[in-house]
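[09:14] KT: can someone run the structure on this one? pasting the chain below
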Amino acid sequence: MTNGVRTLALLVAISLAGVGASQAATRNHLSGQRSVYLSRAAGQPVDWYPWSAEAFKRARELDRPILLDVGAVWCPWCSLMDRDTYTNPETADQINQHFVAVKVDFDASPKLVAQLQRAQAVLNLPAGLPLTSFITPDGKLYFGAGYLPSEGKGDKQSFQDAAEHALKQYTNKKQIDEESFQLEVAR
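[09:31] RB: done, structure tokens below
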């Protein structure tokens, strides 16, 4: 083998090792999901869970609110939010440090989505797609939005600002008890 071929082989091996390591570092709980919408997010830096008892248990253990993202593969705003917001390293860090993140496929969970949309409408919150909801570990929806870009645009609130608002509200448990909507949680 010539030095040029050895060098090329070494560079390929190093780059392949780096790709495997970075993919492993960004894997979350969505690997292996049947839903195309969920499986597309498996490589995002957000530590996503599917809607599950495990996610709610984790939120209770950490005493963190749940960030619930509902979307669909056919929804252009959902795809934009995935690309613009959830792949942003700073946003992903904020989510992973302060929330338990749960992702739901609109098409695969029609009963859950209908319940969430009704709840957000009752609370006078946006109820379209994407549906961004903040709920307590015991299933109380207390804040929500639609599409949230990683940076504010015009009158559109940024994800970071919405998340900060949701965290501040989460500390006021009494207000949440009085002004929230109880959802059926995953058991």
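[09:33] KT: thanks! The beta strands are 48-50, 66-71, 100-105, 131-135, 140-145, 181-182.
[09:34] RB: yep, looked fine to me
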